[in-house]
Specification:
The structure holds two protein chains of two kinds.
Chain A: H1 4-32, H2 39-55, H3 63-90, H4 99-119, E1 127-128, E2 137-139, E3 142-144, H5 146-168, H6 170-180, H7 182-187, H8 192-218, E4 220-221, H9 225-240, H10 245-265, H11 278-295
Chain B: E1 3-4, E2 19-30, E3 33-44, E4 48-52, H1 59-66, E5 74-79, E6 82-83, H2 88-94, E7 96-98, H3 111-118, E8 123-124, H4 127-132, H5 135-155, H6 170-182, E9 188-192, H7 200-215, E10 219-223, H8 227-233, E11 236-241, E12 244-249, H9 251-256, H10 258-265, H11 297-308
Parallel strand pairs in B: 4-10, 4-11, 7-9, 9-10
Antiparallel strand pairs in B: 1-8, 2-3, 2-5, 5-6, 11-12
Classes of the chains: A mainly alpha, B alpha/beta.
């Protein structure tokens, strides 16, 4: 359990999830320079949306048949909330000082948590989430659970689809153009409001995939699960270079591996026995962030741009 | 679904003397400052119209009113008889494209991608078809790329299609801005100081380029400080001084108007084109005109004269 390959694999799994959520932070930031602190809650509502679909499916339906429906349900909820937040909360503040939308995002984050807490049936405690059938299996010395496989496959599929979309489609080019210079993009005939909505929608979609994957991996979802995951994903986005979609994924994986290795090995260092284990892994994640930002303020893959970060 | 929109009816069909752009009574106020005072201007199909005036006269502000970046405080701008909506992307869609005084390319995209962004309004692509990538998607992409390459050939940038825009030398960046503007298949092209910072050879090449654009049936409205360039090129010239239109007329009329000379050209004007020697004052001294508002232009004019000798 404590071998290095196992720790690397654990880091990769959790890192894929951070990366999927981080895409939402980084795309929105890249285009409107807004840190959407409610994004962690969008991930959470995605998970609850998927669970709501599962609860209403007929008994005895196989989980494999249910999975696409759950994904669709989660995606619809998360995308609607993400796009609705943009339309109702952020767009009116587009030209306001930057702190205004930031505080709005924090408020929205709390509001979404409380809404699920109050209105989702019995969501005051953790909710049990269906599991993929089958036991974990071993690849060499690494043991892998079905949920982990789902997570990694989902991350790879989403990421490559997004990269192709952004690089080769008309809308993708319009997104790049809007990120670089919104005014000029408008004068090229690009409806920047539409591009911003698409960025929020893609972020919501990926957050829903991550929410579903997280439920499958841990077997439980909770109304406040978005807080820490969101914070970590935001860290991953900054680590990778905020505004860069590849950076978000890389940052997520680096952060996940650093966390899992730190919690396993730090306590082996003489004099640091107290500083290892689960409780301290978040501290080490942020230590890593600080070190990277000291050496490379623009993040691992970020462009050095004066007015960003 | 994905289709390439057929090109807009070319301005040739609008008839050479038909009004393409009609700005009437445009007033632009910023708080207490009136940057543009009651300016009316008409551009007809197939025409090259110049807009000159001292720095701060409101030329670029007027351009911004035409392209929907600013909403005029009073007055209307109509294109082909329809009042333009105050949304830049709809103005571009209607058929007006522009370049910028300070180059505003998408620096981190390739030369070809910049032009493809310019084609945004002339390709239709649903989000759905971009994800599914059916044959229609590929057909539209291919058509767009072909047209973009044609424009790069036209401006002489085809060999550099894969270079990043930020790596082009200055003069070619200006050309790329023109190619990108042409990509939206405009009926009217607005050029904001297209030869700023160019050497005389580059300026002459730009002159040729503007004539070639006009010969394709695209009307041109150009802001410029280089009087030789303006008077060689334009069918009509309008002079803005302190936000007001002082004079409008043919090159000869404008060059000899006393108010223009007093306010802008300086007495006597030394940059008179060779093609109209009768307009040059007989006793032109070699020194820079005392009243020239833009000192930067003076040495450049001297240099041009030396080259001509």
């Amino acid at each position: 359990m404590h071998t290095l390959p196992q720790q690397l694999a654990n880091g990769l799994f959790i890192g894929s999830m951070y990366g999927l959520i981080a895409i939402g932070y980084t795309m929105v930031y890249g285009i409107v320079q807004l840190i959407n602190f409610a994004h962690g809650e969008i991930y959470m509502t995605g998970a609850f949306g998927a669970l709501a679909v599962y609860t209403n499916l007929p008994d005895g339906m196989s989980i494999w048949a249910a999975l696409p429906l759950m994904l669709a349900g989660g995606a619809i909820v998360a995308v609607l909330i993400a796009v609705g937040a943009e339309r109702l909360a952020y767009r009116p503040l587009r030209n306001a000082p930057r702190l205004a939308p930031l505080i709005t995002a924090i408020g929205l984050s709390l509001a979404l948590q409380q809404a699920v807490f109050l209105w989702y049936p019995h969501a005051t405690a953790g909710k049990h989430f269906p599991q993929l059938p089958g036991d974990g299996f071993d690849i060499g010395s690494v043991s892998v659970a079905p949920g982990d496989i789902f997570l990694v496959v989902a991350a790879v599929v989403c990421m490559s689809a997004l990269a192709t979309f952004v690089r080769t489609s008309r809308t993708g080019r319009a997104m790049q153009a809007t990120a670089q210079d919104p005014d000029t993009a408008q004068l090229m005939g690009i409806d920047t409001n539409r591009i911003i909505v698409i960025a929020f929608a893609i972020g919501g979609l990926f957050a829903a995939v991550a929410g579903l994957a997280s439920g499958l991996k841990y077997g439980q979802i909770k109304y406040d699960m978005g807080f820490q995951a969101g914070l970590k994903a935001f860290t991953a986005a900054v680590l990778g270079g905020i505004g860069n979609i590849y950076g978000a994924m890389l940052g997520g994986v680096v952060l996940g591996i650093a966390e899992s290795c730190a919690s396993a090995y730090i306590s082996n260092i003489p004099g640091m026995q107290q500083l290892g284990g689960e409780g301290w892994k978040n501290v080490w994640a942020f230590v890593l962030l600080i070190i990277v930002l000291l050496l490379r303020p623009q993040g691992l893959l970020g462009e050095r741009v004066a007015d960003r970060a | 679904m994905t289709t390439t929109i057929p090109q807009q009816p070319t301005p040739a069909s609008a008839g050479p003397k038909q009004a393409l752009l009609e700005a009437s009574g445009v007033i632009m106020r910023f708080g207490g400052l009136t940057a543009v005072r009651d300016v009316s201007l008409t551009v007809n199909g197939g025409e090259i119209v110049g807009l000159i005036g001292p720095n701060g006269a409101g030329k670029t502000t007027f351009f911004n009113c035409l392209t929907g970046l600013y909403v005029p405080t009073e007055g209307t701008v109509s294109y082909r008889g329809t009042v333009l909506p105050p949304k830049p992307h709809l103005v571009t869609q209607a058929g007006i494209a522009r370049t910028f005084q300070n180059i505003r390319l998408f620096a981190n995209m390739t030369v070809l991608e910049n032009v493809l962004v310019g084609r945004h309004t002339r390709t239709r692509e649903g989000l759905f078809s971009a994800i599914v990538r059916g044959p229609g998607f590929h057909r539209a992409e291919r058509a767009s790329r072909e047209r973009a390459m044609e424009l790069l050939e036209f401006t002489g940038l085809a060999a550099k299609a894969d270079h990043l825009a930020r790596n082009l030398p200055y003069g070619e960046q200006r050309k790329l801005e023109i190619a990108r503007a042409l990509a939206s298949e405009p009926g009217l092209l607005l050029l904001d100081e297209p030869t700023a910072g160019m050497n005389p050879q580059e300026t002459r090449a730009t002159e040729e380029l503007v004539f070639a654009i006009r010969d394709q049936g695209i009307a041109v409205l150009v802001i410029e400080h280089d009087m030789r360039f303006i008077f060689n090129l334009c069918d009509r010239v309008a002079v803005l001084v302190q936000g007001e239109k002082l004079v409008e007329g043919s090159s000869e009329v404008v060059q000899n108007d006393e108010r223009v000379i007093a306010a802008y050209l300086g007495e006597p004007f030394e940059g008179t084109p060779q093609s109209a020697p009768e307009a040059a004052p007989a006793d032109a001294p070699e020194s820079a005109p005392a009243g020239a508002p833009d000192d930067d232009e003076a040495p450049e004019n001297d240099e041009q004269q030396e080259n001509d000798k």
